[in-house]
Write a structure and sequence with these properties.
With 482 residues, the chain is of the alpha/beta class. The protein has 3 domains: 28-277, no CATH class; 282-370, no CATH class; 377-471. It has 18 helices and 13 strands. It has helices at residues 29-34, 49-59, 76-79, 94-112, 119-132, 178-200, 212-215, 221-244, 256-261, 267-273, 282-296, 318-323, 330-344, 356-361, 363-378, 385-395, 402-412, 421-430, and strands at 40-43, 66-70, 147-149, 158-159, 162-163, 166-168, 204-210, 247-255, 275-277, 399-401, 434-439, 445-448, 464-467. A hairpin with a 2-residue loop joins β4 (158-159) and β5. α4 (94-112) packs across α8. The model has no long low-confidence stretch (mean pLDDT 90).
Amino acid sequence: MYSIRELSTFGDVAAEDDAVLDYFISTNAAKVVEANQAFLVLGRKGTGKTAIVRYLTEQKQSSPLSRPLNLRNYPCGVHSSRIDYGASAIEAYVSSWRYLIAVQVASLVISHNRANLSSTYHQLVQFLKDNYGGANPTLSDILRPNRLSLTKFSLNPSVMGNSLGGVDLTSHDKSHRLGLELNALTKAILSAVVTVCGEAKISSLSLHFDELDQGITDLDESRAKMLIGLVLAARQIRRECDDAGVSVNPVIYLRTDLWDELQFSDKNKITQSLTLHLSWDSDSLKTLIDTRLRAKLNENASWDEVTTSQLMRGSQPKWNHIISRTFLRPRDVIRFLNATLAEAKKSNNDPLLIENKHIVDSRDRYSSYLKSELDDEIRPHWEHWVEALQACSGIRTITFERDDFEKEYLARRSSKNTMDASEALELLYRFSVIGYERRSGYGGSSWAFQYTDTEAGWDSSSSRFKVHLGLKEFAKLREARL
């Protein structure tokens, strides 16, 4: 047994704030990205996307040519004006993203290889100095110039045999060949990057586009096309550079709900072959916590060594009780355990171990946290979702019938809320606020939740539902009597 008296926390809820990242990488997720086997990483908020970015760009010493690109405050308004009118509507932003990726790759190579004196290296340096004042432009500045300058000392791209003297990024003339010109410039930059990589014996480069959910929360038509453009541009550059003998992997980290809203022809192909879906289960989350305990308490510490053996009500192990109230995300587990740790430290026991009452007493605080998390996820899609949660509270039991929900929901629905009861139930299911009862062919039944069974899909004919256990205290629900 190991006392948790000196344990400050089980970890920070946000991976970007935690100094110990290794325990987030207790699966093979980081290895898949590092091996260039995926360029799209999908996961619900809190599944560890930013932790992987930090691990691969800060702590992975074997891969120094890797750069994080944070899109939290990215100027989408500026980017939305860089449209390629010569492309189809769905590919209107591909050429601008290709150029942005190429500039970042060039900057990465230059910053790594400052001693290179080749003419190609100096051409790249000169181009970046001419247009951005230095070799390391910020992400938000790359598409900001009105015109890109091309001097005789820098790159020399051409379109149909004609050398470009520059590229105008601001023309609204639909006959303007922005896509052709940007693609020619991008090709010249990537060709120079490949040459410099060959001279410097660099075989692999990677960029990591993170926090797209912060930069693009309102997914209108323009933002959706912009996201699709980034995905298609990243895939194109991967292919082109692989053919040239250098591995360039622009990796995109995206919330699953945003990806689900995008519609384009190659989406399924990318989802099936080049996408990493971040997922956790009870065992991997326990490994995560054990790793944290070993780092902070003792090399032999584990969850079982810091808890009492007493089972929770219903003969349920403590770990199962906690996991059933999460969305199987590190963020949720850490938040619950931190609340439990705070309750445990109110005791004077020595050694201090986690007891059943500590877990029970922490559920109110945790349930409020989970509701706040859902606010952040659901509000961009449905501003009035709380009215549906209030309807569940009105029923008072954690399981409920469709008819009861419709009655309570209609009584609470405001005039600005245009979603009917059936649509409300479907969206609550999509974000795992509720699950539906699924009958088996053998007379039994189970609860289908989106976060545990992504393949189940929504069953519009369902008549019986269950609110996620993590919301039980916030919504003031009780178990239904048999």
